[in-house]
Design goal:
With about 240 residues, the chain is of the alpha/beta class. It has five helices and eleven strands, in the order E-E-E-E-H-E-E-E-H-E-E-H-E-H-E-H. Bound molecules: hypoxanthine (HPA).
């Protein structure tokens, strides 16, 4: 049976409906992943859940061991990865509560361990990243969101920033000029690492706030948490539908 991995982000540190059968600690040449892998079944599919920020510890975006996470999932034999992340909205339709299935990435992160290609045991390869997300998997998520009649965007450009601070208004204006629709802190290097290991990877982004300078006032954690609570219920619905298909 196909094994599907779900990487949960902020607001999704567990899959409530997952019938947990086992938790597995996996070590990798790059260190330990963010948490034990949670194995189980949902809607008749074999699932592996990994909370990106740890369980229960909250590892900040720039300190996540992305290499260990992706390596552990590969080691465990997953066939594909669906990742979830909370993001700020830049594009006009990207209001709080909106879901997007991104199709492009711009990477503004720095200083992260971002490749497997620099270690002795992995041959250097310049992987193609023209379309950073797996189109078949992306389309399956689009189909699931369409079936549920969710208000969502079929395409979006995800801008990955370093964090943990939020952006300045000028940084968001630059990202807007660059063509970013979304801003988040965990989309990279995760996507590129999955590509290096040839693992189909796609993302569900939940907009939890308008990005800096695009709404009145400053961004507060209270606002983000309020949107996240209901937003993640929609993400769970979407995942359930995707797994049923
Ligand atoms: N910027 C970066 N990351 C985020 C944001 C944001 O506004 N909201 C949620 N994650």
């Amino acid at each position: 049976m196909e094994k599907i991995a779900i990487i949960g982000g902020t607001g999704l540190s567990a899959l409530p409906e997952l019938q947990l059968t086992e938790e597995k600690q996996i070590d990798t040449p790059y260190g330990a992943p963010s948490a034990k892998l949670q194995l189980g079944e949902l809607n008749g599919k074999q699932l592996v859940f990994l909370p990106r920020h740890g369980n229960p510890h909250l590892i900040p975006p720039h300190s996540i061991n992305y290499r260990a996470n992706i390596w552990a999932l590969r080691e465990f034999g997953v066939d594909k990865i669906v990742a979830v992340n909370a993001v700020g909205g830049i594009g006009d339709e990207m209001d709080a509560g909106h879901i997007a299935i991104p199709d492009q990435i711009i990477d503004y992160t720095y200083g992260r361990e971002h490749t497997f290609s620099d270690s002795a045991d992995v041959e250097l390869e310049h992987v193609d990243f023209t379309n950073p997300y797996d189109e078949v998997l992306r389309q399956a998520l689009v189909d699931a969101a369409t079936a549920l009649e969710l208000p969502f965007s079929k395409r979006a450009c995800y801008g990955a920033t370093q964090g943990p601070r939020l952006e300045s208004a000028a940084e968001i204006q630059r990202m807007l000029r660059d063509g970013c629709d979304l801003v988040g802190m965990t989309g990279m290097p995760e996507a590129a690492l999955a590509r290096e290991l040839d693992l189909p990877y796609a993302v569900i982004s939940m907009v939890v706030n308008r990005a800096a300078g695009l709404s009145e006032g400053i961004i507060t954690m209270e606002e983000i948490e309020r949107v996240m609570e209901t937003g993640m219920l929609q993400v769970l619905l979407l995942l359930g539908q995707f797994l049923q298909d």
